[in-house]
Design goal:
64 residues; 5-stranded antiparallel beta sheet
Amino acid sequence: MARDTRTDKIGRVMAHLSGHIWLRPPGGGREWTAHPDDVTPVTASESLRQRVAEANARARHGFN
């Protein structure tokens, strides 16, 4: 999990391609790209919060 400091969004790192980092929002959705200089790791508590949000989203949509 990482924070895009340009947009202040947290996402799961999906890839690092062509000089960009691809991030996906917690719980799924459309990926976005960020410049590596704009991406920072999140704290352990922020990461846990996002993983719980992903699990809750899967449960709401029946993807256990």
